[in-house]
Amino acid sequence: AEATLGGLAMGVGMTTHSHKVGLFQETILSFDLVLSNGNLVHVTKDNQFSDLFKALPWSHGTLGFVVALELKIIPAKPFVHMHYMPVIGQKRYCSLLDELSGASDATKNTPDFLEATIYSKHEAVILAGWFSNASDNLEVNPINRWYKPWFYKHVETFLKKGNSEELIPLNDYLLRHNRSIFWVLESMLPFGNHFIFRYLFGWLLPPKIAFLKYTTTPGIRKLTVTQQVFQDIVLPLATLEQQIDLTEELFDLYPLLVYPCRVYDWGPRAGQIPQPAPNTLCPGTNYAMYNDLGIYGVPGKVKRKCKYNPTEAMRKMEAFTRSVG
């Protein structure tokens, strides 16, 4: 995996468990930080560096170098009991995701892991997972074996199969999108999910992101910026239908990745993240339910060799983001 705890702490750390606990920063009790003058400081929300504690999340390493973190953790189990729920109809899958996240009812017993893969405007598979031991009388599917189908392709099969359940080893689940870099690798390696390639060469995947960057020429870098999209945008879950409509209009690409996340309201001077609007707070709580919208791949206009203006598309998406949240 390319993600690190330091990167999640200083960036915008969000996972499919975030509908229960919020952003990664909510789990941090302290930072050990090397400042620009070389001093090592211990940063907590209650000591002399409390202002730094609030400012570090979302700072992307501009305020110091993190060398240690103290985190709140929970017990884990060796497997994830995964429920695959295919849903036809945009309103239906948006409504089900809202319900499962607990956005409308904070007392609801929510899954440990929750996400949706949206395959078209009207088709999605919602994945709800619970920590589990190997005692649920279910088949164990080690999804990250080199010969296995890419995970999003595996999930897509449930649009035809219907509701299903299986056990996934926890480590496999956490790295489920690695081999195919979500679904980006398909545009680089169209035959990568073919069973013959997987069986003979699947062990080579995923390519290291650092290696790909190192071997990329200036020309390819320009094409990556102007003819591909790699965006994770945090928006209020209540606007999910609008998000999908606008994404289809601007980028015309699928799948899309969605998973809910609590965003807490800790007051006006609680850090770099804006306070959620009062009318977005979940009833009886101090948090609003937002979601990550993952847009990765080649826009439809580029595939069809039509005129595509990435700057204009992103400006419209940024304007929408500001307007809703």
TrEMBL record:
Subcellular localization: Peroxisome
GO BP: steroid metabolic process
Keyword terms, alphabetized: Peroxisome
GO molecular function: Delta24(24-1) sterol reductase activity; FAD binding
Domain named FAD-binding PCMH-type: residues: 1-76
Major subcellular site: other
Cross-referenced InterPro entries: Diminuto-like, FAD-bd_PCMH, FAD-bd_PCMH-like_sf, FAD-bd_PCMH_sub2
Gene3D superfamilies: 3.30.465.10
GO cellular component terms given for this protein: membrane; peroxisome
Subunit comment: Homodimer.
Name of this chain's protein: FAD-binding PCMH-type domain-containing protein
Organism per entry: Graphocephala atropunctata
